């Protein structure tokens, strides 16, 4: 092609010119790299994507391989769901915050639970001391859940719940509250995180060992496919893997490897792939390197589509679609000059939108210091609204497609992630790779390399290792009332004296028996929840059968 | 020759944010210290027990759950009960400035908040050891 010859000549001439000017004016750095330490060339041209086949590699939005997006009109149809993760203190306090967020224009709820709830301990457990209501809302029983959603019509909102090891219990509580509101399970929309594998490697709120945990997860897949058909039964999460230090490509690789493990487990449990795969959803991070992050989302969509179609032979196009939620990167925020975080969050949120996210949480400026105040949360939400209503980036689909740089990054991330997945396959899959500590080690190596780069100022973090100022300690941070623990404990005591304890005992005994067998545990958990058995009682029953996970400590 | 400084890196509380703890553990090791890291969800009792058994010079705790006002003083109380007064105890994590004076009064020698270079922590440990390395 003469075009190509001309181009080659043009590029050679350019290179020669650059060599000359470099002698006089060297570039700012010897090596330019992305936020994830991948090399960046001076210039990207058609040469960098000469193997790209438009129809095969990009296609059109809403069709395989979904590189350009999962819906055919994307944000021209409707914007992403603006969903702010929130919850603290008691169910009453959190209920107030949800109502505030709904009034301010959020379009979905996202429930943060406190750590005892996430690890299946009641508020009066010794290990809960000091933790009740701190990083989220304390839920001990259905009674608390009724208060949490009081006055919020569950057939009108979609609710995401960040709950993993005890996901089945919290989902059962949600179903029970809905029934009391007169809303049947098939009308419910929302998501449970329910992703235990990333808890073992990055987030830490595990309870049971991998095998029974995978059973609980596939039980949920099966139950929801019959009774709660619009529920996203899992949110396979790269977010925390990235926060723990992974690179962009590792985030994609380890998340999709976990996804493969869940699909394998469900198929092994006898489910048909097209029955549950359309309800799988994903959760990614958005860090500061705008183009690399956009490319990451596009690469993840394309790679997952290939995995589902080619590896698992799924037939339903909905099974091929990687739908995802994004949260901006908590670990990128600085405690120094916290208002600067508003700008970081805006760039990250833009990356998520340019990458075609289905829902988005924007972090608040004060999150490196404490839980966010109402004002900080409002700014974070307004950031999304400005991108949606003012920036114009939403008016055409996947606007960065065709960029030599972005397409080349998309290819690179996909290739790198596919190579990791191959390596994990060779180790026997994600569960085995985690048991051997492989994934943890890879993440930690990246985290340490990043920290050393920051300390050597190889990587500049504005306000932290450059452009510092003397600052007064920040004022007006949110404080959780330390008496929450006592109030929850008193409430538990009252609950236990009022409920029908015979039916609690009976429902827990039935659950224990089922756990020892092979039945789907969801109906038993739902019965226990409705009898007002507490979260701790239900999880203790399961602990007595399943045992507890022992962390593999790796340095 | 002086022996190596022995450090217990510990995560009290229920949160799973161990990136900081692991990075600091590795940085201390690279700085020539002997480091023990015991993993997530350590109770104050377990932390002090390990400090005692391993005969460490330093306990470095990391917490990001907000339970520091409860757990750090509890560790100090148990340290005193076990006569570990010559062990340097430091802490780090998402800890509001307002809480730091109270934690120092409880006996935590220093609190390192987000953005602290590992070199700062390393220097602090070397300068403030309570035990002799002879």
Which features does this protein show?
heterodimer, A: 555 residues, alpha/beta, TIM Barrel, 9-stranded parallel β-sheet, 22 helices, 9 strands, 7% strand, globular, B: 134 residues, Rossmann fold, 5-stranded parallel β-sheet, 5 helices
Q: Your description of this structure?
A:
The complex is a heterodimer of chains A (555) and B (134). Chain A is built from 22 helices and nine strands. Chain A is α/β, with parallel strands linked by helices. Chain A has a nine-stranded parallel β-sheet with strand order 5-4-3-2-1-9-8-7-6. In chain A, helix 6 crosses helix 21 and helix 10 packs across helix 16. Chain A is globular, with a radius of gyration of 24 Å. By secondary structure, chain B is an alpha/beta fold. Chain B has one domain: Rossmann fold. Chain B is built from five helices and five strands; from the N terminus they run βαβαβαβαβα. In chain B, helix 1 links the parallel strand 1 and strand 2. The radius of gyration of chain B is 13 Å and the shape is globular. The N and C termini of chain B lie close together (7 Å).
Short description:
Chain A contains 22 helices and nine strands. By secondary structure, chain A is an alpha/beta fold. Chain B has five helices and five strands.
Spatial extent as radius of gyration of chain A:
24 Å
Discrete helix count of chain A: 22
The description of the largest β-sheet of chain A is: 9 strands, parallel
Give the terminus-to-terminus CA distance of chain A: 54 Å
What's the layout of helices and strands?
The complex is a heterodimer of chains A (555) and B (134).
Chain A: H1 2-24, H2 54-58, E1 81-86, H3 91-103, E2 108-112, H4 115-118, H5 142-148, E3 158-162, H6 167-180, E4 189-192, H7 196-203, H8 210-227, E5 231-232, E6 234-237, H9 239-243, H10 248-268, H11 273-276, E7 280-286, H12 290-311, H13 317-320, E8 324-328, H14 340-354, E9 359-361, H15 374-389, H16 404-427, H17 430-435, H18 438-455, H19 484-498, H20 501-516, H21 522-530, H22 535-546
Parallel strand pairs in A: 1-2, 1-9, 2-3, 3-4, 4-5, 6-7, 7-8, 8-9
Helix pairs in contact in A: 3-5, 6-21, 10-12, 10-16, 12-14, 12-16, 14-15, 20-21, 20-22
Chain B: E1 6-10, H1 19-30, E2 34-37, H2 44-54, E3 58-63, H3 68-81, E4 88-93, H4 100-105, E5 110-112, H5 118-128
Parallel strand pairs in B: 1-2, 1-3, 3-4, 4-5
Helix pairs in contact in B: 1-5, 2-3
């Amino acid at each position: 092609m003469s075009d190509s010859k001309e181009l080659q000549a043009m590029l050679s001439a350019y290179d020669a010119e650059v060599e000359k000017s470099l002698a006089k004016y060297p570039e700012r750095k010897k090596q330019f790299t992305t936020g994830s330490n991948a090399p960046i060339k001076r210039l990207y041209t058609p040469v960098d994507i000469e193997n790209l086949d438009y129809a095969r590699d990009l296609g059109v939005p809403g069709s395989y391989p979904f590189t350009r997006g999962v819906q055919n009109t994307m944000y021209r149809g409707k914007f992403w769901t603006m969903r702010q993760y929130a919850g603290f203190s008691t169910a009453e306090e959190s209920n107030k915050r949800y109502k505030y967020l709904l009034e301010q224009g959020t379009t979905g709820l996202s429930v943060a639970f406190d750590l005892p709830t996430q690890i299946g301990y009641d508020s009066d457990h010794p290990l809960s001391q000091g933790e009740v209501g701190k990083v989220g809302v304390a839920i001990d029983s259905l009674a608390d859940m009724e208060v949490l959603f009081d006055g919020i019509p569950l057939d009108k909102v979609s609710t995401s719940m960040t709950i993993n090891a005890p996901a089945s219990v919290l989902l059962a509580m949600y179903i029970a509250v809905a029934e009391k509101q007169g809303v049947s399970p098939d009308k419910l929309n929302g998501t449970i995180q329910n992703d235990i594998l990333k808890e073992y490697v990055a987030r830490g709120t595990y309870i049971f060992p991998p095998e029974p945990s995978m059973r609980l997860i596939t039980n949920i897949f099966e139950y929801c496919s019959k009774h709660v058909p619009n529920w996203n039964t899992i949110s396979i999460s790269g977010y925390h893997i990235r926060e723990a230090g992974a690179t962009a490509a590792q985030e994609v690789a380890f998340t999709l490897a976990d996804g493969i493990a869940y699909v394998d487990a469900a198929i092994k449990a006898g489910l048909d792939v097209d029955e549950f795969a359309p309800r799988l959803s994903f959760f990614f991070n958005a860090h500061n390197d705008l183009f690399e992050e956009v490319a990451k989302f596009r690469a993840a969509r394309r790679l997952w589509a290939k995995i589902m179609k080619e590896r698992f032979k799924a037939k339903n196009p909905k099974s091929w679609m990687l739908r995802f939620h994004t949260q901006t990167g908590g670990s990128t925020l600085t405690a120094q000059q916290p208002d600067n975080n508003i700008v970081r969050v805006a760039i990250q949120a833009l990356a998520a939108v340019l990458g075609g996210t289905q829902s988005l949480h924007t972090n608040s400026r004060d999150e490196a210091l404490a839980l966010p105040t109402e004002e900080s949360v409002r700014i974070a939400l307004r950031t999304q609204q400005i991108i949606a209503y003012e920036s114009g980036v939403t008016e055409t689909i996947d606007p960065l497609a065709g960029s030599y740089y972005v397409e080349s990054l998309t290819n690179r991330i996909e290739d790198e992630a596919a190579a990791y997945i191959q390596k994990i396959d060779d180790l026997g899959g994600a569960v085995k790779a985690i048991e051997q500590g492989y994934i943890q080690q890879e993440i930690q190596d990246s985290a340490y390399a990043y920290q050393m780069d920051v300390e050597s100022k190889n990587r500049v973090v504005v306000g932290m290792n450059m452009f510092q100022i003397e600052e007064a300690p920040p004022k007006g941070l949110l404080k959780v009332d330390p008496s929450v623990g006592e109030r929850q404990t008193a409430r538990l005591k009252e609950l236990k004296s009022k409920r029908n304890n015979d039916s609690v005992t009976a429902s827990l005994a039935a659950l224990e028996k089922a756990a020892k067998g092979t039945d789907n545990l969801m109906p038993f958990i739902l019965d226990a929840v409705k009898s007002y058995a507490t979260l701790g009682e239900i999880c203790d029953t399961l602990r007595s059968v399943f045992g507890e996970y022992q962390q593999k400590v790796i340095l | 020759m002086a022996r190596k400084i022995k450090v217990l890196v510990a995560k009290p509380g229920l949160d799973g944010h161990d990136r900081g703890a692991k990075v600091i553990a590795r940085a201390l090791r690279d700085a020539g210290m002997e480091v023990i890291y015991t993993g997530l969800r350590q109770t104050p009792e377990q932390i002090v027990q390990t400090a005692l058994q391993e005969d460490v010079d330093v306990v470095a705790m990391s917490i990001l759950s907000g339970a520091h006002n409860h757990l750090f003083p509890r560790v100090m109380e148990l340290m005193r009960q076990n006569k570990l007064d010559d062990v340097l105890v430091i802490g780090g994590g998402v800890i509001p400035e307002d809480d730091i004076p109270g934690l120092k009064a409880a006996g935590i020698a220093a609190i390192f908040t987000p953005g602290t270079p590992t070199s700062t922590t390393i220097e602090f440990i070397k300068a403030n050891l309570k035990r002799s390395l002879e």
